[in-house]
Design goal:
- By secondary structure, this protein is of the alpha+beta class.
- The chain folds into 2 domains: 15-137, no CATH class; 145-235, no CATH class.
- Helices cover 19% and strands 12% of the residues.
- The protein is built from 7 helices and 7 strands; from the N terminus they run αβααββαββββααα.
- Strands 5-6-7 form a 3-stranded antiparallel β-sheet, with no helix packed on it. A two-stranded parallel sheet has the order 1-4.
- The chain is extended and about 60 Å long.
């Protein structure tokens, strides 16, 4: 599949050697955010390369709008092919070493070190993770939390009062039998709509399930699993 023919020559031809360092040992972590219903990639918003890969490997579905949904393995296969065509080196299972993983010269990052002992020198380093560990170790200024609606004039910024599909539709008791709050529930002020805060969005599980028996695999019980942590979901 020739992805390069869809892109202007200057967008994919380069004299640089490029490597992608992945943390978990699979590209699923990269492709997962793009195939769930909450992250629709509608036809009008897809670039040619993603559109080509999606339609070649996946089932076309209609959910309110024309959209492409695919299993992680399908997305990973396409992404691997794109990396190969672009001559990008893919290295799985490389996690940045904590606290001492970045070597700088002045304000420039010169080298990064992994937990497995590997080291990489380069002219450009892009932190494309959710957590931003490389950015933080490089002492790049950053912020977190939600900006207020007034800071940048964004109507959907800040604390949200009632956002469709982001709050429970029915009242749920947040206390256990002893009158204590259930796990993962914060007993602090909610804040006023539009206000800024310094909170971090919760990490969530993204489940890929099927009703096709031949495609099912068992879900192993994780080490240290405690069902009480998920009581709110059960309710």
């Amino acid at each position: 599949m020739d992805f390069q023919r869809w892109l202007p020559e200057t967008e994919w031809q380069s004299d640089f050697e490029v490597a992608v360092l992945e943390v978990f040992g699979s590209l699923d972590a990269i492709v997962l955010p793009f195939h769930l219903q909450q992250d629709l990639s509608i036809e009008a918003g897809l670039d040619h390369a993603l559109l080509l890969g999606s339609t070649a490997n996946c089932t076309l579905a209609c959910v309110a709008q024309v959209a492409w949904f695919y299993e992680p393995r399908g997305g990973e296969s396409v992404l691997r092919e794109m990396l190969s065509e672009a001559k990008v080196t893919l290295l799985l299972g490389h996690r940045l070493r904590a606290r001492t993983g970045v070597t700088k010269f002045g304000a420039e990052v010169r080298e990064i070190a992994m937990e497995n002992g590997a080291r990489f020198a380069g002219k450009v380093f892009a932190d494309a993770t959710y957590e931003g560990d490389l950015m933080a170790q490089a002492k790049v200024s950053y912020t977190w939390g939600r900006e207020s609606t007034s800071q940048y004039g964004e109507t959907l910024a800040g604390v949200r009062d009632k956002t469709p599909k982001h709050q429970f539709l029915v009242k749920v008791n947040p206390y256990d039998e002893a009158g204590k709050l259930l796990p993962e529930i914060h007993n602090g002020p909610v804040g006023k709509p539009g206000e800024a805060d310094k909170r971090v969005q919760a990490h969530n599980f993204r489940v890929i399930a099927t009703n096709e028996l031949q495609n099912r695999i068992a879900w192993p019980k994780p080490n240290g699993y405690d069902p009480r942590r998920y009581e709110l979901l059960a309710r």
